[in-house]
Amino acid sequence: MNISVPFTAPVPGPHNAITDVPGVRVGHVTRIGDGFLTGTTVVLLPPSGAPAAVEVIGGGPATCDTAALDLRSGGAVAHAVVLTGGSAYGLAAAGGTLDWLAAHSGGARVSAAPDVLVPLVPAAALYDLGRGGLFTARPDAASGRDAAQAAADSPPFAPVEQGCVGAGTGAVTAEMKGGIGTASDVLAGGTVVGALAAVNAHGSTLDRTTGLPLALDAGADGEFAIARPSSAEHAAAQRRLAEPARGRSGLDLPNTVIGVVATDAPLDAAALRRVALAGQRGMARAVSPAHGMTDGDTVFALSVPGSAGTAADPLHAVLAAAEAAFARAMVHAVLHAESVVTPFGHIASYRELYPHATAGPA
């Protein structure tokens, strides 16, 4: 049976952020200077956790505890999700978040003793090694603990800082500075879907013809305050991006986009995997090419319990919203990114390259 899903413009939540999903909090740790250009982001869930799934499509992932979310095992409940820089080394941040949860009574009970809890903290890392100057300057366990604490210290439904923070600190794209972004959608029946994406894409996030970010058409009315670049502005930006002496030597290494889709819809493991797949489809709308052999493209999906979510919105509507929200989060990551000077040279942001097109706020 084919189900036709007509396009409906997103209706963002109060902060147009993944934290519009009840029970979801986000904390960043950002490290810049002294050889660092990296960071960690923690998506913190209620103490009892949330059913989770994952879809890894990129050929070069750096992940932790994704096997626990395998649908063949019936799925699992996660207590936090870690997105981090530092490639495989940065996965140490997940251990720090695990320690933080253990100290704050977060986790699944595995013994008759009430204080014996084991949290599940799936994680994914992107490649930003050495971008601040030192290969050894990368997230560690303290980064994961501090990001979890930052999430816990934030009030419910808090806005999420975007751009060159947390896991997006050292992110780059094929042509310019990347970052971290977020978006949300409130469906007709009240279900909330939110996404968070760290954009460190090997592929391009721009339409080569217009200079506009890909997936711009997925946005809500007026969501992206950006005008179509003039032909002169676009030509100038393309000339800058084509310069061989841009100082990007050493940056064109394995890349990845990592992120999370969360919803208050009560979904089982099979449905959640489809939500994660929808996030991957959104990724493919916002970067081209996606899912290459050197990319670690990974999307987690969460069904956060104990909220107002109901079954009023059908799964196909949740999936459509998840796809669009992830794509929109990636556009926000690009538009909020800021230029940076590294030992490899100057990495320009979209706003620097297209100043007239982005004169309004993102």
TrEMBL record:
<protein>
    <submittedName>
        <fullName>P1 family peptidase</fullName>
    </submittedName>
</protein>
<dbReference type="Pfam" id="PF03576">
    <property type="entry name" value="Peptidase_S58"/>
</dbReference>
<dbReference type="InterPro" id="IPR016117">
    <property type="entry name" value="ArgJ-like_dom_sf"/>
</dbReference>
<comment type="similarity">
    <text>Belongs to the peptidase S58 family.</text>
</comment>
<dbReference type="InterPro" id="IPR005321">
    <property type="entry name" value="Peptidase_S58_DmpA"/>
</dbReference>
